[in-house]
Amino acid sequence: MNQDYIKLNDWSIIEEGFDKENVKSSESIFSLGNGAMGQRANFEEKYSGPTFQGSYIGGVYYPDKTRVGWWKNGYPEYFAKVINAPSWIGINVLVDGEPLDLNTCSRVDNFRRELNMKEGVYYRSFIATLKNDKKVDVKVTRFLSLDLDEVGAIRYEITAVKEDLTVTFSPFLDSGITNEDSNWDDKFWNTTSISSQGNQAFIEAHTMKTNFETCTFMDCQMEYKGKIQNKPDETEEKELWVGHAYQQKIEKGSTVAFYKLGGYTVSRNHKGANLVEAAKEVLGKATKQGFDALLEAQKKAWEGIWEMSDITIEGDTKAQQGIRFNIFQLNQTYLGKDSRLNIGPKGFTGEKYGGSTYWDTEAYCIPFYMATKNHHVARNLLKYRYNHLEKAIANAKKLGFTNGAALYPMVTMNGEECHNEWEITFEEIHRNGAIAFAIYNYFRYTGDYSYIPEMGLEVLIGIARFWHQRATFSKQKNKYVILGVTGPNEYENNVNNNWYTNYMARWCIQYALEQLDKVKAGYKEDYDRIIGYTKLSKSETDEWKEVADAMYFPFSDQLGIYLQQDGFLDKELVTVEDLPKSQRPINQKWSWDRILRSPYIKQADVLQGFYFFEDHFSEEDLEKHFDFYEPFTVHESSLSPCVHSIQAAKLDRMEQAYQFYLRTSRLDLDDYNKEVEEGLHITSMAGTWMSIVEGFGGMRIKNDKLSFTPRIPKEWDSYSFKINFRNRILKILVDKSGAHFELEGDHEMSIRLNGERLVLQPVAKNPVQ
Amino acid sequence: MNQDYIKLNDWSIIEEGFDKENVKSSESIFSLGNGAMGQRANFEEKYSGPTFQGSYIGGVYYPDKTRVGWWKNGYPEYFAKVINAPSWIGINVLVDGEPLDLNTCSRVDNFRRELNMKEGVYYRSFIATLKNDKKVDVKVTRFLSLDLDEVGAIRYEITAVKEDLTVTFSPFLDSGITNEDSNWDDKFWNTTSISSQGNQAFIEAHTMKTNFETCTFMDCQMEYKGKIQNKPDETEEKELWVGHAYQQKIEKGSTVAFYKLGGYTVSRNHKGANLVEAAKEVLGKATKQGFDALLEAQKKAWEGIWEMSDITIEGDTKAQQGIRFNIFQLNQTYLGKDSRLNIGPKGFTGEKYGGSTYWDTEAYCIPFYMATKNHHVARNLLKYRYNHLEKAIANAKKLGFTNGAALYPMVTMNGEECHNEWEITFEEIHRNGAIAFAIYNYFRYTGDYSYIPEMGLEVLIGIARFWHQRATFSKQKNKYVILGVTGPNEYENNVNNNWYTNYMARWCIQYALEQLDKVKAGYKEDYDRIIGYTKLSKSETDEWKEVADAMYFPFSDQLGIYLQQDGFLDKELVTVEDLPKSQRPINQKWSWDRILRSPYIKQADVLQGFYFFEDHFSEEDLEKHFDFYEPFTVHESSLSPCVHSIQAAKLDRMEQAYQFYLRTSRLDLDDYNKEVEEGLHITSMAGTWMSIVEGFGGMRIKNDKLSFTPRIPKEWDSYSFKINFRNRILKILVDKSGAHFELEGDHEMSIRLNGERLVLQPVAKNPVQ
């Protein structure tokens, strides 16, 4: 834990008191997003201190030319980066001619930020004493509308504290922005037009190379004592900037409110349309409602989100705030409306890991979205990969695979691989398995089989073809082996027979073969289309089967455990406990070769396989493997604690499970990794949700039915969560006395609780006690 | 083979006819060097076509900030680059006002370059018809003086072919030069002063960061019909440039000669001195002799070098030219006068592999220098590493090693590691073994033990400490293992128990222990000093011994061979012969992961160990391992064919040995790797020498005695070479009838020929027949 300035509160994230040291960290933590755009918590008014400016538009990226020390064949040419977009939030403020700038003010009192997660609104307030000794009380309200997702709204209120004042608001748009992360200092944006019309202004700019056209817009008005001014006193246009000015004399004790609506219209959502006209249209809708109505609608929209996705924890505010922050950020990042979008590791909160999509989506995020939204959201995430199938086939081809073998990218924005370390790009191929697993998981949870004949089967075939070709036959072992891979534990590179990868490979082939049979039997037309398209033959699937049947798995007879990879037992097996604290985190203290030689595990690897395929193994097996591997695990990936929390809970090791839970849920609030300035760890937040629902709640799907084995950490009085299971809404509350269910709808539902069948009656008949 | 425009000739490299496509290639091949400075074969006069300009000063480098895609702890901050130095060769020419530029001339006839290797002189001549239709016959003679190694000399002669002409020579110095290889477009040079005095000019400039001060200088004169003009008609100074102009009317059929002496004085050789004064002093010496005397001295100096290092081959001009080119380039690069210098893979012929020193020096170059120079030269190369011991200890420390463990760098200029791929920098640690082996090899060959107590033992201790710490104990194997390495075959990364590396590690420890005993017994004072300094204890050396005694070596019982690394037999063992030609070279056709998974070997790995330690293995063993590994070897390293040539010869597979020989000896002349433009492969040239002397000649040192098992390729009538063995000069001539020896000096000498003892009488008594 690296910071503790965030106040504990069930529903809000709160900072009190102005500390310049926290500005960049808070800019991340108080970020706003609405699934279509995002905004770091940068100040509206000028701020001359250190800051990390970030405005992001979903799906708008730049292919930054790859930078490497030593080029290797097969490396991608470009790294697709979510980029800082033209800024719409700026409102410079003059008080009697003196700029308001918290970095240079004489005093800042009562500074407070609140990210009200219940409402989806960000509040900021302070009393500033300026260098000219004038004193203003400022209150800012900001949100990105969920209803009109191209629009953000700001209300900026200034009260004269001790004398009459003249206040000038200078709202502006600025396309002269840069990226902190840029390989070659390329210019990412080209500005094509700047215009002002009355109280509105527009900057049209397009990204270089990708040519995403955007219009950044604003619409302002000022209100003082009931009188509204919606024509600026001045208008100024510069090369990459347009600004207006509104001036108002205000009396001591009175308040002037300045309203700014702003945001983006983007060519990808307005094909062929005039983006300025499109901006005017959405501004028309927004101004027609007005700020207050938009704000109310925002609260209502978030109420709807929370209604379905909230998790309550009684008796542990730290834990409660943590889980809500995670759920809030996930919903800010992705709402599942657009199958061209996905969930970037930093969402809309920073630039790092610039390419948007990782296997995190399939391995961690899909369960959250399946349970807290309707199945269309998860289906859209699956469809995203289906739409990238041709690119995945091209990625594989680049590495020498043929015949429609598909290798999904490690990092991508448009389906092309972006990453450029050979040990990841070319070798961390287990990601392909997660894509297939998500298809299985989606059907298991939602019962919606239609995705498989329509799209999924083609993905499964491409993936099976990849594994078939990637495995090679070892005469010595008389088995198929998979050489030269990096497993989920990235602290091992270029190993042979990573158990997780081999297991995944075999499962992918077997699952593809099963689904081929199933689609053939039940969806003849789809089957014929797909066979025609993929030219899949019996002899080819026989070869797949041969590989799957004879796959090699490293195993220690002596220990009775699967080995993470060939040769794992040759390492010096000193547990993390016996590693001096001064040596950790090893990724900061050790050279890479030392990490690679060590037995230390960055995140679940064998145990990730036990998580995905738990039904294949007994609890004794899990215990044996958990006891062997967890002691070597340093959890230096944000994706590690959640899986271990789930498995510790399953093994009824509740204290350990609780510790893992805290670490995953407050990773960013407490800045465990000393990097929250750069943005939030969005995808691991879905793991936090899994820790409660699958870990403590023990939720599983077994034979098309929900199953629970609820446990509760001793620190908690109770916790509850809600899930959408095949359009049935079920709330589960767990307290010290046990589990309590609240089923919506009209029909009863059969579940399993601790292995026993239980028939739940709808809510009227069986209220939560 | 990629080019064949070089004419076959025993003593010269010749190009005839002007082809712009060959300019950059010839700029490499016709390069000049004198051990202290080097010059690519760039034209003196303006050339507006594609060219790669290169002037280099031994030991003057720039630490270019590292560029990587993804930083890893332990990476070096800088890559030390031999850099392009201010240019001294330029002489622009105007003919009746029209610039002479071979790229834009109307015609170029009789163009010819000759690198006369016997003389160490580079000749260029042509007849140019300019755009103004004037015609000149040009002859240029250039060399870098071996005697005055700060000076190069040019004679530039122009004859008026068909009418009277006015010729203007504009000699200049230019510090406005750039590097083709630059990570961040840094400015490498800072020019501090420019001056002209009479017919001399000077540019003082220092490298940024490293602050090597240099003075680039010139001294010119023009001669026409016996009249000498040594005052320029004009002088011009610009910001980074100084030029003079000499004008002369010449009559049809007559010749004007322009002489330019130029070069560098450098602070590293003139501590605290005024470099302009130093330049004047060396110019004084040179002009006192004059061009013709310098030229004669040059020829004489090269005669001396050839006297000792020439290899003759009768009956095969292609092979003869190849070996002389290799020997010539090695002598141009390094003459052993300065222990601060070493042998860069491209010598003074290009920028690539910017950091100068690789393990190539110890593994490949030292045998050549030991046999063709006196032992001080090889000793200087060893001393270079001794001087870097502290830096090697620092390199190891950076990776987490302690207690004075030393890891010599993969690439370096000043002892610090420069390379930044983890799989090389951190893992290709076998290089440490080559440093120790060179110490052993030096003593074996020269009999000069003094290096070991004076310096070598400390190096051996640092290296043994490294191996002791780098090996870890495998409980499973009950042996010490070395995990996560890259062997000499760089087509495998991060493997466990690379046989070569493990074998080297054990040998290094054993050899260090032996030498500790020997120094203790015979050099008590040195021993005490070293023990005091290193704090080496009995318990520590006992631990070393334990590691060496229990080192693990991967071995296949079934095949009876040592395995290149753990798991090698799990690969798909398809030989190179069965690999489609279209797939080669695999380093251009395949992605890196595919290369890594394949069985293909870039250069000798297990066989490199069999080369170094041949006495440890029977010939049957060698045969078995050669037969197993060579068929998987793609020889995509310039260092590969020579070792295989030697071993094929040993196994009496002469046709194979001859093919390997041709490939190594004409690598650059025939441009096998399509990259000769970038510079020559200097270090592998020493391997070519070994192919003849150790391969065909079968020269070994056994029990302090020379031993030969001579063989001759069927394509050759005879071959001969000369060696300096412990200050005895012996010439060996091998023809179809057998071997013939010519021993210099007064005393007889006992050698072994084909295993039989033979006493050689000095030359007078036993002339070559």
UniProtKB/TrEMBL annotation, chains A, B:
Domain Glycoside hydrolase family 65 C-terminal: 699-760
Keyword Aminoacyl-tRNA synthetase: no
Biological processes annotated in GO: carbohydrate metabolic process
Binding residues annotated for substrate, in chain numbering: 359-360, 602-603
Protein name: Glycoside hydrolase family 65 protein
Keywords carried by this UniProt record: Hydrolase
InterPro entries: 6-hairpin_glycosidase_sf, 6hp_glycosidase-like_sf, Gal_mutarotase_sf_dom, GH65_N, Glyco_hydro_65_C, Glyco_hydro_65_M, Glyco_hydro_65_N, Malt_Pase/Glycosyl_Hdrlase
One Gene Ontology term of the molecular function aspect: carbohydrate binding
Domain Glycoside hydrolase family 65 N-terminal, residue spans: 14-268
Active site: 490 (proton donor)
NCBIfam families with a match to the protein in the record: PRK13807.1
Family indicated by similarity: Belongs to the glycosyl hydrolase 65 family.
Domain Glycoside hydrolase family 65 central catalytic: residue ranges: 324-690
Gene3D superfamilies reported for this sequence: 1.50.10.10, Glycoside hydrolase, family 65, N-terminal domain, Maltose phosphorylase, domain 3
